[in-house]
Amino acid sequence: MTDASDCRRPLDYRERARAALPAHVWDYIEGGAGDELTVAWNSAAFDRVSIVPRTMVDVSACDLSCELFGARYATPLGVAPMAYHQIAHPEGELATARGAGAAGALCVVSIFASARLEDIAAARSGAEASGPLWFQLYWLRRREVMLDLAARAGAAGYRALVVTADTPRLGDRRRDRHNGWAVPAGVRAVNLDAAVMASAHRRRPGASALAGHAEEAFDPSATWHDLEWLVARAPLPVLVKGILDPADAQLAVDHGAAGVIVSNHGGRQVDGAISALRALPPVVDAVAGRVPVLLDGGVRRGRDAFVALALGATAVLIGRPVLWALAAAGADGVAHQLRLYRDELENLLALAGRPRVRELGRDAVAHG
Ligand SMILES: Cc1cc2nc3c(=O)[nH]c(=O)nc-3n(C[C@H](O)[C@H](O)[C@H](O)COP(=O)(O)O)c2cc1C
Ligand SMILES: CC(C)CC(=O)C(=O)O
């Protein structure tokens, strides 16, 4: 375990996590599809955008809050949904939720969480921990399971559902194939039926057990009509995650989405897919303020969050860097990591003379 205070910027947690984790777990977390072109493009896209500071603005108080579904969120930063946090730390999602709560950040819990969604909500509502939880779903062949989870999330106090649209099957994760990756026996997706999950644990040389499991459990025939079906039955607003094309953003809203998340799944699905940041402005234009647009993929600094917010995101989600901090230092690491992002963002808002997140616009950045 690392002393969290050794890490001065979000990227500092990366090597700590690599040292703390078995190589096959590291490869599953860090890897992407194919040659991992999109993994690299996601973060490189942020480096190609400059910030245009204003001067002589009163920045004595910066406001990082954003509004989502009628509620005020303390920061525009959140944890992206990621499966099986127990592979990174024995306390898994309970630690992530506590850490995110302590930092006042949104936490999106994966359908493949390794803790019960009700226990995650309880961990979150401890004395220090607060802040919103959302729950993520995949399009399962067994639709009744989706509805059951949606109802449980609603009853447990989750505030929104996220349905991931970019995974009709799993992308070609070469590292996982090479490692014959399977979810370790002691780590379970406890919100789902153990019988349904068995194939995720079945090791086969030269194959990813998760790819096999996804083929079995995910419904590759889901279309926009299925979104309407889900929206009509869900007790919570439904966001669609995995949008890259403005036409899809439009269709999502037309079929009842309460929000869209611009994402290429951290480069884990279509290798060579457009970077999330590059895809963002056309999606924001197509949605035209009707619903919030969020982004994930490659956000590695507070500065990257600033850029995405300026280009029209209401909030940004952070994936792998949260698992790095979880692996290195548990709940304290997650809280510290999210504070590093927040403090960098706050400092930049002040230095750039743009003290309110909700007023950030495209004039705050320039390309090149
Ligand atoms: C280990 C891992 C597991 C993931 N599991 C899920 C998941 O269960 N559901 C989902 O919608 N996305 C999942 N994702 C994708 C993330 O939600 C997010 O889109 C991506 O990690 C963002 O990119 P970043 O890691 O560069 O920040 C996963 C990503 C990683 C790295
Ligand atoms: C269990 C997997 C489907 C989780 C996932 O989305 C991923 O590994 O990217």
From TrEMBL:
It holds the Pfam family FMN_dh. Glyoxylate binds at Y28, Y138, R173, S263, H265, R268. SUPFAM superfamilies: FMN-linked oxidoreductases. CDD domains: alpha_hydroxyacid_oxid_FMN. Residues 2-368 form the FMN hydroxy acid dehydrogenase domain. FMN binds at P81, M82, A83, S110, Q136, T164, K241, D296, G297, G298, V299, R300, G319, R320. InterPro entries: Aldolase_TIM, Alpha-hydoxy_acid_DH_FMN, FMN-dep_DH, FMN_HAD, FMN_hydac_DH_AS. GO terms for molecular function: FMN binding; oxidoreductase activity, acting on CH-OH group of donors. The keyword Flavoprotein applies. Keywords: Flavoprotein, FMN, Oxidoreductase. The active site is at H265 (proton acceptor). Its cofactor is FMN. Belongs to the FMN-dependent alpha-hydroxy acid dehydrogenase family. This is Alpha-hydroxy-acid oxidizing enzyme. The lineage of its organism: Bacteria, Bacillati, Actinomycetota, Actinomycetes, Micromonosporales.
